[in-house]
Write a sequence for this structure.
């Protein structure tokens, strides 16, 4: 069965056809996600999220012959969202994290010089 035929079945609600399409192109999806995330676990997370979103909106796909293009576009968007979320996270060293959790929140030495520099601005 061709990809287009499987896509038509998936659009009509056939879960097995949708799974078959994803499994047939898993390597391509994985390598695409790896190009964007550079991390195995992040790539798998992006593929999982993209697969869920594609499954939930498969009925919106108007042209079954473009199934892989459509899924790849969803995957790339997921990779960008994942990378954006990681930028917002501020990693702590273990020692700093434990100090903050224990309530020993001492201001870093450079914080006072930074505050003074900000106050000196026009």
């Amino acid at each position: 069965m061709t990809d287009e035929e499987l896509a038509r079945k998936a659009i009509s609600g056939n879960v097995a056809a949708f799974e078959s399409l994803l499994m047939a192109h898993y390597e391509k999806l994985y390598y695409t996600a790896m190009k964007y995330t550079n991390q195995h676990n992040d790539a798998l997370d992006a593929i999982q999220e993209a697969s869920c979103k594609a499954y939930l909106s498969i009925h919106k796909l108007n042209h079954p012959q473009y199934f892989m293009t459509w899924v790849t576009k969803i995957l790339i968007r997921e990779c960008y969202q994942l990378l954006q979320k990681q930028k917002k996270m501020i990693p702590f060293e273990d020692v700093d994290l434990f100090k903050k959790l224990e309530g020993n929140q001492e201001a870093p030495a450079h914080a006072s010089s930074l505050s003074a520099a900000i106050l000196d601005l026009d």
Notes: DSSP finds seven helices and no strands in the chain.
